[in-house]
Write a structure and sequence with these properties.
- 33% of the residues lie in helices and 18% in strands.
- By secondary structure, the chain is α+β, with helices and mostly antiparallel strands.
- The chain starts with 16 loop residues before the first strand and ends in a 13-residue tail after the last helix.
């Protein structure tokens, strides 16, 4: 549709990224400093994966930085980004209709899509939260309920 809203209008252009061989120690530091819930993993300027804050928590020992931390707990911080990232990466473009991006997230059970250019470089991210916020605004004031896609 010509007037269909597209991802480029709601995406976040400020992106935090890490290299594939970055340690989970550094990944954790980035999450703590940038305040995002997703980090884009890049290699050679191309998006190759995504790490969510939940992915990080799943792969770190719950005893890291605790009084009862053992060597094997601390060793979880030495894992690498490529070992915990979601792949294959699911992406979209700035011109992707918002509804289609939401469908991709539901179908692939992800909460973030890196937005890529023609070369596979990251130009932003769109999250389920972005789409929900857009949906609430788009549906505001409608007398009938706003249809949302059903989960697959």
């Amino acid at each position: 549709m010509a007037n269909e809203a597209v991802v480029g209008t709601i995406m976040t252009r400020r992106v935090a990224s890490v290299a594939m061989d970055e340690s989970l120690r550094r990944v954790r530091e980035l999450f703590n400093s940038v305040g995002f819930h997703h980090l884009v993993v890049v290699e050679g300027g191309r998006v190759v994966g995504v790490i969510s804050d939940r992915d990080l928590l799943r792969h770190l020992s719950p005893f890291v930085d605790r009084v009862n931390e053992r060597a094997q707990d601390a060793a979880t911080l030495t894992k690498r980004a490529h070992q915990v990232m979601s792949r294959p990466v699911v992406t979209c473009e700035e011109s992707t209709p918002i509804g289609e991006a939401g469908r991709r997230m539901l179908d692939r059970r992800v909460t973030c899509l890196p937005v890529v250019d023609a070369r596979g470089g990251c130009v932003g991210v769109v999250t389920m939260r972005d789409i929900l916020a857009w949906s609430l605004v788009a549906c505001a004031g409608q007398e009938t309920s706003c249809p949302l896609p059903k989960a697959a």
